[in-house]
Amino acid sequence: MSETTARRGRPATVDRHRVAATALRLFTDEGFGNVTMDDVAVACGVGRRTLFRLFPSKAAMVWGGSGEARDAIDGVLAAAGDVTLPEALDVVRGAFVASSTFPPEALEVTRQRLCLIAGDEELLSWGTSSIGTSAASVAEFLSRAEGAAQSSLRARSLAAACAAANFAALVWWAQSAPERDPAGVVDEALTHLLDGARTWAAQG
């Protein structure tokens, strides 16, 4: 007797990652605005209600995985403990590199996500407003490194610049250099950015 038969009445388990991957292929091939949730449900062989239980919208399918990236950044920052501001810059760079280190089987899906987000202003806006960015947690970390009780202008500016550079580097990788290692691309971009910021940080 199968598990599905034995547990009659329970919905069959649906692979969330497989559904998202199928949706991304549809969005990439046919255009994000030309594909409906019903189209995705049919392509995945799941019911409309099941699909909406997994993903409340098409945008949520595209932005899947962003939570894991933020968790990776927060984990590196938390593990760093108390550091000085110049040292904190290296920690921040390492945190973004960690968040951009993907398993081989996730590279193509990640590339498709980034290309779709970069090509659709509404999709980009949805993610930044609904999910947010890592800039706030990075700003708090840099402020602690400064010994400040509240986020300073310098900390907020550096955090915003790092978050923007990280996203720009990943989009460049997705669109122009998919043969490269995305973590290496992010490392290179943030090294250039933070080398210029060290003088500012050294000013105390």
From TrEMBL:
Source species, domain of life: Bacteria
Domain HTH tetR-type: 13-73
Alphabetical list of PROSITE patterns matching this protein: HTH_TETR_2
Phylogenetic classification of the source organism: Bacteria, Bacillati, Actinomycetota, Actinomycetes, Micrococcales
DNA-binding residues (ranges): 36-55
The keyword Glycoprotein appears for this protein: no
Name of the protein this chain belongs to: TetR family transcriptional regulator
InterPro entries per the UniProt record, alphabetical: Homeodomain-like_sf, HTH-type_TetR-like_transc_reg, HTH_TetR, MftR_C
Keyword terms: DNA-binding, Transcription, Transcription regulation
